[in-house]
Amino acid sequence: MSDDREIPVEATPPETRCGFVAIVGRPNVGKSTLLNHLVRQKISITSRKPQTTRTNVLGIHTEGRVQMIFVDTPGMHTNQAKAINRYMNRMAQAATLDVSVVIFVVERDIWTPEDDAVLDRLRDLSCPVLVAVNKVDKVNDKSTLMPIFAAIASKLPTAEIVPVSALKSQNLHILETEITKRLPASEFIFPEDQVTDKSMRFMAAEIIREKIIRQLGAELPYAVAVEIEEYVDEGGLVTIGAAILAEREGQKRILIGDKGERIKRIGSDARADLEALVDAKVMLKLWVKVMSGWSDSARALRSLGLDDSGFGR
Ligand code: GDP
Ligand code: MG
Question: How far is the CA of 132 from the centre of ligand 2 (A)?
Fold first, then answer.
């Protein structure tokens, strides 16, 4: 018997688009906050303190036939003296080499020489640049932004300028539309449900580091690192043991606090975020170790996984 059902003729399937999008800008303009809101999940730690982000973090957002792979970069720094600053500069530059789009984040009507330094490095790039003028939720009279838009347009004539509030997720859909237009036709690089390239261990260390920075504010320089020494996932319960590395005995005392008050707070704040991240109960063990001069030693950086082998690790 012949089968006279019509054979469906497949129209060419709509093409997928996929590419890397670097988020660059001076410290504290809101790059990590923007990344977290674009991928709708906390991928990159944030704080009021500059230099919170130390390594390039990939955040992946897939919707429909479009996959955007965001690279959150540590801000660029002018002080080259310390190994950690040199490292951060290299990472910030590396991230702009092989991307389809660059988002240059600036802060409402505040333009500084550091913004000009970032701009200088962008001029040589061949890929399109979008300027996200962030934190516009802080501006009541939006017309005060017009001069800064005009100034940016004269500095970067080909760039598209989008005012946004990363924190309040305002205008991010416009930014996404502009990004999508500029992405190449390509297969997806990551599975649709993956949101970051980082391991759970890395994310756990970052969350603990965020709580330390938030708890201590100006009391501690940023030379504090977290090393995950134990990570055991038993389904409903994840046991995490982490060493906090301080540079000096004095910092260790500050971290521990009066009767262990500080470290307890850091631990309970971190545990709440960790439980949300792993979606299970978390048993968290923290201790403080003194490892002097770690931020100035390139070898110590490598031992902590902060080497300069490029992004995408
Ligand atoms: P980064 O150094 O560029 O990664 O900046 P962060 O993302 O860590 O943000 C620096 C500070 O700016 C944090 O305190 C954020 O909460 C704040 N911030 C970021 N985006 C916005 C925004 O759209 N509006 C407001 N009011 N604050 C923001
Ligand atoms: Mg950051």
Answer: 15
